[in-house]
């Protein structure tokens, strides 16, 4: 589709979800997309390739979408060009990973600072698997290192920040596929509309705009990502290649169902979600993550175990809250144990760091440092027990 709106989006992170989902939706809504990334080869390929395909795969068959009207800039080597793109953009989105937000904040802050107070403020939406990712990005942008304190009072005239929940399974791609992206048909992109109410929401087809994002992001993270990660970590431990392979194992399937039943109980009690509706959602997710056409490797889904073991994440977040309310957490603890066992995985720096942390710290310190859990919390002794068991097994090996 040609750029019919004359609108421009700058998207940080031209990886799987960036090319396959966010840029695809921006393009289909008439935006020109300027990718910002640090991977030089990827930037060159994007600039040398006038179109790529987004290929949906599933039991219903395959369908393709052709994406055009994009460019790419290396944010490491061409910062000034990127600042200018952000100054003149309508929207900035990102899918770089939650730990990278602090690195992209300085250039976004510079671009925002150069904008006029009299034009429509820049719409900023982070598309990461994390609760409040846009708030995190905004807090880095507002940091005194990136934005002069005297400019903070009028920042809302130049930029607005909205949290989002983004859901579409995009596995690691075939290295010979060029820019093409193979993914599942299903998608959900929910964005908080309240920061844009007086300036208008950006015209992006496919976004669901809501007033209260918390139930949506928690339901997504604590169902899709809890279930996905449970299958991946149990699968890795039992030498399965993909999430699909893992789910063929009845014991792993029982662990996934168990963990998702525990998060269902919490989500229903906390957000008043209808129990039958959540059960149907849970079953749909189990079907989605078991899509045989995706060939989603357990190492991708389990990547970055330290992030996944942190306080607000897919396991510790719901387990701590459920335990505090005396709800069952047995299966979540099983999955947490498998996450602690995901050590020294090739190509995964966090899994190597996890191994060092486990060998150099007491179980109590691991629970405090990695999971951010205090001794006064009800889940604490059970997590210490899990870590001690994994440490004891490592010593025996
Ligand atoms: N893949 C999925 O199924 C999926 C679905 C929903 C959400 N997400 C979330 O989207 C984010 C990205 O995931 P992905 O699977 O696309 O990962 P990915 O590794 O495929 O893509 C990340 C991209 O960010 C780029 N990048 C890294 N540092 C950067 C920097 N400083 N500036 C600009 N670009 C930088 C990388 O070069 C890479 O191209 C994560 O937060 C993930 O949780 C992924
Ligand atoms: O991206 P992560 O590392 O937070 O989690 C891995 C997968 O669970 C994730 O990428 C899913 O595929 C995605 O969240 C589906 O919407």
From TrEMBL:
* Catalytic activity entry: D-mannitol 1-phosphate + NAD(+) = beta-D-fructose 6-phosphate + NADH + H(+)
- Name the top EC class: oxidoreductase
Q: Which UniProt keywords apply?
A: NAD, Oxidoreductase
The record places domain Mannitol dehydrogenase C-terminal at 212-354
Record-listed E.C. numbers = 1.1.1.17
Q: Where is the signal peptide?
A: none
Q: Which InterPro entries match?
A: 6-PGluconate_DH-like_C_sf (IPR008927), 6PGD_dom2 (IPR013328), Mannitol_1_phos_5_DH (IPR023028), Mannitol_DH (IPR000669), Mannitol_DH_C (IPR013118), Mannitol_DH_N (IPR013131), NAD(P)-bd_dom_sf (IPR036291)
Give the function comment from the record. Answer: Catalyzes the NAD(H)-dependent interconversion of D-fructose 6-phosphate and D-mannitol 1-phosphate in the mannitol metabolic pathway.
Q: Please name the PANTHER family in this protein's record.
A: ALTRONATE OXIDOREDUCTASE-RELATED, MANNITOL-1-PHOSPHATE 5-DEHYDROGENASE
Pfam families of this UniProt entry? Mannitol_dh, Mannitol_dh_C
Does Oxidoreductase count among this protein's keywords?
Answer: yes
The record's note on quaternary structure and interaction partners says:
Monomer.
Organism for this UniProt entry: Trichoderma ghanense
Q: Which family does it belong to?
A: Belongs to the mannitol dehydrogenase family.
Q: Which HAMAP family would you find in this protein's record?
A: Mannitol_dehydrog
NCBIfam families the UniProt entry points to: PRK02318.2-5
What residues does the Mannitol dehydrogenase N-terminal domain cover? Answer: 8-198
| Entry keyword Transmembrane | no
Protein name, entry field: Mannitol-1-phosphate 5-dehydrogenase
